[in-house]
Write a structure and sequence with these properties.
This protein is about 40% helix and about 15% strand. By secondary structure, the chain is α/β, with parallel strands linked by helices. The chain has a single domain (about 5-305), classed as NAD(P)-binding Rossmann-like Domain (Rossmann fold, 3-Layer(aba) Sandwich), CATH 3.40.50.720. The strands form four sheets. The chain has a seven-stranded parallel beta sheet, with helices on both faces. A two-stranded parallel ribbon has the order 7-10. It has a two-stranded parallel ribbon with strand order 8-13. Bound molecules: NADP nicotinamide-adenine-dinucleotide phosphate. NADP nicotinamide-adenine-dinucleotide phosphate (NAP) binds near residues 11, 31, 34 and 160.
Length: about 300
């Protein structure tokens, strides 16, 4: 049992991670504008852009690990609000790394596959990043700042899907919501990725913490697929009509932020460090379906209270 502080505990990754961690660890989840009710872990509301807010909490809770899941993670919102993206994605992780290092707290910082330009795919940790958007550039600045402050920080570049508080945060929910309503939905054939189920990713991150890993790791599915194939796989798991997923090369709407083509990640470094096979996108899709059957999305929805800002 460890004391773990999780920032962004109302977000897609933070909430699922906190729920996976709570049975084994003492978890304090930090939320901002989305409060949680009856969560099986302690929560605290905080604005992490308030520079004075975190110190007293770190001194009170004394976490052994700080898992930083907060970001402005919407690519188009980052183009619209570049200063906020810089504050949340780059400046904040740099500050947290300092606050954690001063107290001997291990930091697990969450980064993204989007630091790459998607020209090649199968990116390893030593491939040169080339961010295409403000989101990607600020996330890269964040991970670089963390590693400069604390070379022993654990930095995980990830991609994931799952059930969220609002029911609409993840790509899996986008396909599920459209397909369950009998609506056709575009599936991009030229965008490839290696996502994990957020719950599986959470368990894997905790295993990495137990192994005391440090440095930069790609934490993703060893099996990759296109977004079109992902949509078809969701349709098949939930017995929706897979023909509703329309293969397309380009999105119907123009996005503010440029998107990369092939963001698949190479996970050889993590596989060797862990000494066992990693979960993959297909086992994750099976569990996504099983969680739905068990009423998990409704349980998340029941934890949501009205936005406070
Ligand atoms: N989603 C993806 O597909 C994806 C892919 C690759 C990497 N990532 C990375 O994974 C991490 C988690 O992403 P996510 O999709 O789970 O994010 P998310 O669902 O958008 O959640 C963001 C979290 O940040 C919190 N937050 C925002 N502003 C805050 C502030 N001023 N003070 C305190 N908390 C604040 C939010 O709290 P409230 O909601 O309570 O305001 C929320 O809990 C991020 O580092 C992201 O870059 C995401």
């Amino acid at each position: 049992m460890a004391r773990i502080l999780i920032t962004g505990a109302s977000g897609l990754l933070g909430l699922n991670l906190a729920l996976e961690a709570a049975p084994q660890h003492e978890v304090l989840g930090l939320v901002h504008s989305h409060l949680l009710v009856d969560a099986p872990f302690a929560t605290r509301q905080i604005d992490l852009l308030d520079e004075a807010a975190l110190d007293p909490l770190l001194d009170e809770f004394k976490p052994e690990w700080l898992i930083h899941c907060v970001a402005l993670a919407n690519l188009d919102a980052c183009e619209a609000q570049p200063e906020l993206a810089q504050h949340l994605n780059a400046d904040l992780p740099a500050r947290l790394a300092q606050q954690a290092a001063q107290r001997g707290i291990r930091l697990l910082h969450i980064s993204t596959d989007a630091v790459f330009d998607g020209q090649k795919g199968n990116y390893a940790e030593d491939d040169a990043p080339h961010p295409l958007s403000i989101y990607a550039a600020t996330k890269l600045a964040g991970e670089e700042a963390v590693m400069a402050v604390d070379p022993d920080a654990l930095v995980a570049r990830v991609n994931f899907f799952g059930w969220s508080l609002a029911g609409s945060r993840s790509l899996a929910e986008f396909f599920y919501n459209k397909l369950s309503a009998g609506e056709s939905v575009p599936g991009l054939t030229h965008r490839w990725f290696s996502p994990l189920l957020a719950n599986d990713l959470g368990l894997l991150l905790m295993r990495m913490m137990e192994l005391e890993l440090a440095g930069l790791f790609h934490v993703a599915s060893p099996v990759s697929l296109s977004k079109y194939d992902f949509g078809v796989a969701i349709a098949e798991r939930f017995a929706f009509d897979p023909d509703l997923v329309m293969a397309t090369e380009s999105p119907s709407l123009a996005y503010a932020a440029p998107r990369a083509g092939n963001l698949t990640l190479n996970v050889d470094k993590l596989t060797a460090a862990r000494g066992a096979d990693l979960p993959d996108v297909h086992t994750g899709l099976n569990r996504l379906h099983a969680l739905h059957r068990e009423g998990y999305p409704d349980r998340l929805r029941a934890m949501a209270v009205e936005r406070v800002h």
